[in-house]
Amino acid sequence: TQTPLVILNFKTYIESTGEKALQLARALEEVSEETGISMVAAPQGADLWRLSQEVKIPVLAQHIDPVEAGGHTGSMLLECAKEAGAAGTLINHSEQRMQLADIETVIRKTNAEGMNTVVCTNNILTSAAAAALNPDFVAIEPPELIGSGIPVSQAEPEIVEGSVAAIKDINPDVRVLCGAGISTGDDMKAALELGSEGVLLASGIIMAPDPKQALLDLVSKI
Ligand code: G3P
User: Fold this and answer.
1) How buried is residue 99: exposed, middle or buried, by Cβ count under 10 Å (0-12/13-18/19+)?
2) Catalytic: which of 93, 104, 156, 197?
3) Which of 13, 146, 177, 221 satisfies CB 3.0 to 4.6 Å to 185 for a cystine?
4) How many C-alpha atoms does 201 have within 13 Å on its Cβ side?
5) Is residue 42 within 8 Å of residue 61, measured between CB atoms?
6) ipTM score here?
């Protein structure tokens, strides 16, 4: 069995931008080395290159646009994220939703490049639909709990359990993460007990007075 996975989505908080993104990535790297738990950083596109050069943990893009190389000003091209050192990408985050056909395009291209995909979903049915598209991970995050500080593993455990069941039924190879409001060791423990294989989280760590300590707390009860 693989160790649980922690993916920190840096979003666009000032506390996880630029120089601070690097500090946060270093905290993830240190905690990963100290605990043996896999930690992954998902910084903004403009921070991908620096982080991938400066830290040893995997770095993911937060989004890839479903475009081919050419005239698409302002888009995030998969090939560019790859050259910037991304090991894969989040897609379809509730803050950056995509159409089903575009999610499929990005997963297919990302798989072909040997990179990893984490498809974010908002409920059990979209989790099942995402699993059919063959991503590496599906991350279930009820939108109303994102950034709320109320952990999904306590507020809506049935959505996590239901998503795990629906995803594994359709595609047992897909690994399941959950997120929204996760910040403490109890939250993470509960998430794993519900059948998820890791967490996708943001504000509870990024906004903590001491993010490294918050990460150590997060994995203290596994
Ligand atoms: O992608 C992770 C995220 O949407 C959860 O956000 O701030 O509730 O941990 P947060």
Assistant:
1) exposed
2) 93
3) 221
4) 31
5) yes
6) 0.98
pTM listed for this prediction: 0.98
Q: What is the dihedral of CA 84, 90, 93, 99, to 10 degrees?
A: 90
Strands (E), 108-190: 116-121, 137-140, 175-179
In the reported structure, the alpha carbon of residue 6 is separated from the centroid of ligand 1 by a whole-number distance in angstroms of: 12
Catalytic entry in 63, 104, 141, 197: 141
Looking at residue 19, its amino acid is: E
- The single-letter DSSP state of residue 47 is G
Q: How many Å lie between the centroid of ligand 1 and the Cα of residue 71?
A: 32
Q: Is 179 in the pocket of ligand 1 (CB under 6 A)?
A: yes
Digitized pLDDT (tens) for each residue of the chain, 222 residues in all:
578 999 999 999 999 999 999 999 999 999 999 999 999 999 999 999 999 999 999 999 999 999 999 999 999 999 999 999 999 999 999 999 999 999 999 999 999 999 999 999 999 999 999 999 999 999 999 999 999 999 999 999 999 999 999 999 999 999 999 999 999 999 999 999 999 999 999 999 999 999 999 999 999 999
